[in-house]
Specification:
Chain lengths: 290, 129
């Protein structure tokens, strides 16, 4: 790369910042990737302006974006990319912010260096590789932002999907819904044990009506939860075992040991009441027949 | 050497572990406990571990051993107040303390000892009075 090309970009940006900004903003607003519903023209303008300013300062020290001089630009892009990922921009809509800078910038380079083809080619190359790298950075951050969203949702789902409900004095129940994997069992187990302590429960009912399949692994997870609850001094009852699941368990040769199992939550609850020395009786004459 | 105090409460012995258990302390407790069961003709042992937030495989096995030994000396053992994290750890270690009775707190543990005793007295009648 010649010295001429190296110095061409900074001086170009310095001299024509306003013009480039105008062209760039216009281009972004006219582009079909512009989301008028999510960002206003003023936002686009101020973001673009801040980006150009930061770039102008950074580019004076070279086009290697790994140097600390580029940190401002990178932070700006990171921020922008993250906020756009959160607002629901698509990947291409986010990336176009940086890539759309190419056209106005190349236009300026061409008019400026028209007389010197070698310098023109060098400056174009320098500009395009710089913008590409910034574009890739944008995408990486965008991707990370999206992954963060997914991860947060997964965690929320975990918390939402494992409520522990108090059925009676000393009796709690965990209605499990959805597939059980190790991570979820861990959360279920922790929640259940904590609630056993909080509510002083002596009997815990694990209801698996909503668990679609029970394989050896799921059964093992359940047995672990039962064993842990027993260690704390609470008895467990597993309820909601559907006929097919009962068949599967037997076919798989899973040994549920001495864990009490019931077909429905109602049966399990009845047993829990009985163990507490309680019975449910009908009140004699409930204004019936009168 | 420090020792874990063993309190006599009527027919039962009460042990509350308040300090971090190390292996030597655990062995000493086991020895003392057996000695006390014999001396007081205790019918039940209640071990409260609600203050323990760390139980390793050695302590876990010791609890199981104490229960087994106490059973030979004709005393029931109840472990009470185990914390959730400890319970999970023991299960992950594969120690589910099958021979040990458990209860949520000391109060429930006492009830459990009472009922266990009644069951055995009415049941096999191995012990008279």
């Amino acid at each position: 790369m010649t010295d001429g090309a190296k110095s061409a970009l900074p001086s170009l940006l310095g001299r024509y910042e306003k013009e480039i900004l105008e062209d760039w903003v216009k281009l972004q607003l006219a582009s079909d990737t512009h989301r008028a519903d999510l960002v206003t023209e003023r936002d686009v303008r101020s973001e673009s302006q801040r980006f150009l300013e930061a770039t102008r300062t950074a580019i004076a020290n070279g086009t290697d974006i790994r140097t600390p001089e580029w940190n401002d630009v990178k932070n700006l892009l990171t921020e922008l990319s993250q906020s756009r990922a959160r607002q629901g921009f698509s990947p291409s809509e986010t990336a176009m912010f940086v890539f759309s800078l190419k056209q106005p910038l190349f236009g300026r380079i061409r008019t400026e260096l028209a007389k010197d083809p070698a310098a023109l080619a060098d400056a174009t190359w320098a500009a395009t590789s710089l913008i590409d790298r910034l574009g890739i950075l944008t995408m990486e951050v965008y991707q990370k932002g999206r992954e963060g969203v997914i991860q947060r949702q997964q965690e929320e789902l975990l918390e939402l999907s494992t409520p522990v409900v108090r059925l009676w004095d000393n009796v709690v129940a965990v209605p499990l819904i959805g597939t059980l994997d190790s991570a979820r069992t861990q959360v279920v187990m922790e929640n259940l044990l904590q609630e056993i302590v909080n509510l002083g429960a002596a009997i815990a009912i694990i209801d698996i009506t909503g668990v679609p399949t029970v394989d050896t692994l799921v059964a093992q997870h359940l047995l672990k939860a039962v064993a842990a609850a027993r260690l704390m001094g609470a008895d467990c009852i597993i309820s909601g075992i559907r006929p097919q699941i009962a068949q599967t368990i037997v076919h798989l040769g899973v040994d549920l040991g001495d864990v009490v199992t019931k077909a429905t939550l109602a049966d399990a609850f009845a047993l829990a009441l009985k163990r507490n020395g309680l019975t449910v009786t009908k009140v004699a004459a409930v204004s019936s027949g009168s | 050497m420090e020792r874990i105090p063993i309190l006599k409460m009527g027919r039962y012995l009460l042990v509350t572990i308040q300090v971090d258990m190390h292996d030597r302390l655990a062995m000493a407790l086991q020895d003392d406990l057996m000695e006390q069961i014999r001396r007081h003709h205790a019918e039940g042992v209640l071990i409260d571990i609600s203050a323990l937030d760390l139980v390793d495989s050695f302590i876990g096995r010791m609890l199981g051993n104490i229960a087994a030994m106490a059973r030979i000396l004709d005393a029931d053992t109840v472990v009470t107040g185990m914390r959730p994290a400890v319970a999970i750890t023991l299960v992950e270690l594969g120690l589910s303390l099958t021979g040990v009775r458990t209860a949520l707190n000391v109060e429930r543990g006492m009830e459990l000892l009472d009922t266990a005793r009644e069951e055995r007295e009415t049941g096999d009648g191995r012990r008279q009075g």
